[in-house]
Known about the structure:
Elements: H1 8-26, H2 29-44, H3 52-55, H4 62-77, H5 83-99, H6 116-127
Helix pairs in contact: 1-2, 1-4, 4-6
Amino acid sequence: MLPNGQTVGSYVQDYRAQLQNISNASGVDDQQVGATTGAFQSIAGSNGPIDFKNTFRGQANAAMLGQAGNFAYYAIGSGILPNFELDAGAGAYAIYSAVLGRKPFSSLTGPMFSDASAASVRNQGLAAKGCKTQ
């Protein structure tokens, strides 16, 4: 449960459906990957809808919000985007954050240098299959 009363699963379901619709409508492989990646970037980017750590800053534990956002990131993209692309995005974000001094480089221990928080929820997010309610 997030500070606004919604669940992480509801965010995953909503944004995954949007991403799947864009992916389905994109057609040709190269266009599909580009359109889908671009749409995912707007969902997962800093201060985007699943950046719970910034959206709910000061309203809940920052580490928990970060893990919730990391889980949503992987759960939304799994099966739509390749896992290596999801790992590369998480790694790029972690490296960028470390360069800015927001996290220590020593925490970049996950796949493709993603941080420990992302790595700790990666497999669960990938396995969530969009947080289906069934």
